[in-house]
Amino acid sequence: MGARDRGLWWWARRRSALLDCALAALAALECALGGYSLAAQRFHLGLGWAVAAAVVGALGGASLLVRRRWPVVPVLVSMILVPGLFGIVLLIVALYTMAVSWTWPSRRRRALALSSVVFVETLAVTLFSFLAVDPQPGEQAPATWVFVLIAVLVAVGLTVPPLVTGLYIGARRRLVESLKDRAHGLEAELDLLAERASERARRARLEERTRIAREMHDVVAHRVSLMVVHAGAVERIVARDPERAAQSAKLMAETGRQALNELREILGVLRMSEEPVAQGPGQLAELPRLVDQSKAAGMVVTLTVSGSRQPYTAGAEQTAYRVVQEALTNAHKHAGGAQVSVLLAYLPNGVRVAVVNDCPSGAGEQVRLPSGGNGLVGMEERVLALGGSFTAGPEQDGGFRVQALLPSRLAVRPDPLV
Fold this sequence. Notes:
The chain is of the alpha+beta class. Among the domains are: 14-132 and 142-190, no CATH class; 285-360 and 376-418, Histidine kinase-like ATPase, C-terminal domain (Heat Shock Protein 90, 2-Layer Sandwich). It contains ten helices and five strands. The protein has helices spanning 14-42, 47-61, 72-81, 88-101, 108-131, 144-237, 242-271, 287-296, 314-334, 375-385; strands at 300-306, 339-347, 350-357, 389-394, 400-407. It has a five-stranded mixed sheet with strand order 1-2-3-5-4, covered by helices on one side. Helix 1 runs antiparallel to helix 2, helix 6 runs antiparallel to helix 7 (242-271) and helix 8 (287-296) runs parallel beside helix 9. The longest helix has 94 residues, at 144-237.
């Protein structure tokens, strides 16, 4: 706020103070002339009394300086000066200020009472001034009802317009203020909604990054682990068993191609629209092939399938497949030479997959593989997102078990209309 708009005392702006000073000066001049005329001409008092009356009138008119701080003060002063038939400017401005500044209807009774008193007083003084004048000799005086009508019109003209105008302006100001408050509230609410939307977008981006990272980990970790295992085997046997080394190299190439194909699928989904991607006949049917790849890498692994085969949604089958894939990768990393069992069971309450490895005996030569430590976390997030249960931990005999159960509601039901 600039220096020109800075408030002064009870005025919010300096131009409001200048306006009140101008109105007070005008009212003071009118009241001073009225007081002087009343004392000198009507009551025929001396000059000293006339000057004193003018000073009192000027002070009464100057009461408009406090109209914004104490609106009732100018009204009371005008009620004192009205019997002297002066202070018209003071009366009009005081009634307007009272109506515009007092909250309606919380002070309705007080405003109506003061306005009624001013109206009655103005009517009585005007009517008395008309009736107190004696007619000139030979001049016929108007009827009394004429004086009453004129007095009523004068009283209404002096009190009703400023009161009604003040009420209208005050109501309009309060309406504008309430609209501004609502606008500020809506703006604050929109800012809050924008912040929440930004936070949701940030969380969505974080979740999407986590999902993509999980997909990349599931695709790359298993395939690359197999490739590293085969590469270590090739390095060890290339001199004494070239045929087996060639077979391992062939498996490495096949595993690499599979990893590239899965990476292309993921990158293709990222580049395409948000339409779901078809997953084929079901990834649980690919578990035997996954187990065979681990066998080819030197792992002693068996697959056991129990229960009546039932198709599940693409997301559920992919999650179960990824659990087995990640568990086998962990077995390659941490349990080299141990026997591994892959269990797939179709149960009434869902489908269960489990990968259990025995305690590593140390007989098998291990290839040290890097580990990011996010495999189990990613598997648990996948399963819990579908409403299933996930457990992973050591067995009593020193082995390790990874198990996931997906609910039966994810099963693909046959269409009854077909």
